[in-house]
Amino acid sequence: MTYRDVASRQVLTWAVVAVGARMPVAMAPLALVFLARDRPGGYTLGATLAAVYVIGEILGAPLLGMRLRPDPARPHLVAGLAAGAVGFAGLGAFPTAHPVVLAAFAFLAGGAPAAAPGGLRALLTALVPQRAVAQALSAESMLMSGIWAVSPAAVTGLALGVAPRVPLLLAAALMAASVPGLWLLPPGWDTDSTEGEGMSTLRLLARAWPVYVTGAASLALLSLAELVLPALLEQRGVAVGWAGPLLTGLSVGSAVGAFVYGLRSWPGGLAARSVVLMCGLSACVTLAALIPGTAWIAVFLVVAGVLQAGAMVTRNLSLREVVPAGALAAGYSVMYAAVGVGYAATGSLAGALLHFVAPSTAILAGVALTLALTLVGALGERVRRPASSPVGGGDGVAAGDTGADAGTRAHVADAERTPVRGGGDPERSL
Questions:
Q1: Which domain CATH number covers 125?
Q2: What is the largest distance, in Å, between two alpha-carbon atoms of the chain?
Q3: pLDDT digit string (tens) for 109-141?
Q4: Could you give the number of structural domains in the chain?
Q5: CA–CA separation, 58 and 336 (whole Å)
Q6: Long-range contacts of 353-358 (CB under 8 A, 24+ apart)
Q7: Is residue 100 very low, low, confident or very high in pLDDT (cuts 50, 70, 90)?
Q8: Measured between alpha carbons, how far is 67 from 71 in angstroms, rounded to an integer?
Q9: 0.85 cut: is pTM over it?
Q10: Both 385 and 275 in a single domain?
Q11: Which of 14, 74, 159, 329 is the most buried (most CB within 10 A)?
């Protein structure tokens, strides 16, 4: 269980494809704000376009994700990413078009490729030995943290230094470039498990609802940090310009947390681990809201990033425990939509409360909502478990396994694992 198991040519290729597919997603909301800021309605129009983009993601992820099949997945992924590139290109090529036309392009850019994150994650876990799934998901989290840390600066620099349309044209180019990269990866992933045969995809995914609730809670706190932080800094008498460096610290902490999480096995089952991480994350955000001083806010946000990365990897491992391998890509897509809903709901709540209460109080209200969601997810997990044994998603390791027993079971599962179709030996080192 080391990162050496993740180091292969195919995983490196996957990472390049993932950057092309995911960086446009990170760039989009801010790029849309800059695109519209010089037009009548300015920031209002930009916020509306960003909202339409997010709605496209939330609707597209489950609807398209449930149609994604493991063999072959490539045609679906190619079509979604190509259509998304068209949406971004339309926004960049026609920045002065009617708002309805821009909204249509934004919806296409958000909705068409929304199943790609789930499909790419399922493909990644099929490229590595089963014993290295946690390390692969940690590596993905590190990569995504880097993308989200770089994207705001890239968008701001290009929009202000070159032209507002350039970030969207770059997003289109990146997403289009990810399409040919898919032909360097296996066309799909094999699923040996017969778990869930005869059940509809919707029923298979519905039994994982506690994981989706916990996933929504985990990103809800990120929404608080990103959207309310400028107002909190003003409340503390701190320059709003510190928001950027502080959020960068959050992203760096998330990358570090993902790396540390993948270094070893951790005690306790996945459900208990998730609750502990979410409570710690909530405590960090609460302390950042209550304790004055920029240095303390920075410390708590970095620690929050570390804990959030662990919560993200844990929820993805939990999903693999509940959903059969053949429906994992759809499960990841539904998770993608769930965390988007959590982000939007908490951000909207905090934004509405800012009209009536202090920013610190708005953050505390968001933390209360997050803890309520965490409690609902934990109770749902306790109710669900006696009714169904863990599916495992092909992991071959039970949630609570640690030490020699877990290693033995993982070794046996890996030895019996069929290589990814068309992908050769996924364990081949660089």
A1: 1.20.1250.20
A2: 65
A3: 999 999 999 899 988 988 888 888 888 889 998
A4: 2
A5: 8
A6: 354/228, 354/231, 358/235
A7: very high
A8: 12
A9: no
A10: yes
A11: 329
